Amino acid sequence: MKKIFLTGASAGIGLATAERLCAAGHEVWGTSRDPSRLPTLARLHPVQMDLSDFASITHAFETAWREAGQIDVLINNAGSGHFDAAEMLSPARVEDFFRILVFAQMELCRVALLAMSARQSGLIINVTSLAARLPVPFMALYNAGKAAMASYTFSLQLEARDHRVRIVDLQPTDIRTNFNVSISRSPSGDTRLAKAWEVIDRNMRSAPPPDLVARRILRLIERADPPARVTVGDFFQARIATLIFRFLPQRVRVWGLKHYYGI
Question: Domains along the chain?
Answer without folding.
Answer: 3-261 (3.40.50.720)
